[in-house]
Amino acid sequence: xxxxxxLDAAKLESEIRHMLVVFPELADDEELRLDTLEGExxxxxxxxxxxxxxxxxxxDAEGLGSYIGDLSERKARQVRGADGVKALMLxxxxxxxxxxxxxxxxxxxxxxxxSSVEVIDVDALPQGTFSIVRQPDKAAIKAQLEAGDDVPGxxxxxxxxxxxxxxx
Length: 168
Hints:
168 residues; single chain; 2 strands; mainly alpha; elongated
């Protein structure tokens, strides 16, 4: 956000605080407060500028997201290409029956096959061969807490106020 807009917003915030001190009746009447802000300050103009700046930043972020997606696809193609070259190198090393080749830029070694576990059916595994992840069911906990039940280890918390900006 441009520094001038930050300064304008800070000045406006100061003006609003001062206005509420000088005219305390504005605190109780939202319509009067809105009319006064619109008529006596740059509130609407600054808020409109802030909406535009926010929308520009969101558009930039969307464009960057698209660009990052393009770069990710390009990266994946390069990785697949590198994997293909590696497979070709392994094939040549195997045909030449060489376990190791020392070059000025690299040392290439053919490794022995390794065994690994492939799980075909998790439900068929016997006890002691799997782990269970304990994860809280926040929806169920919230429902119990809102119903007035005590849930040891959990409490309801209230978030900070949010802001919704609709432009469509």
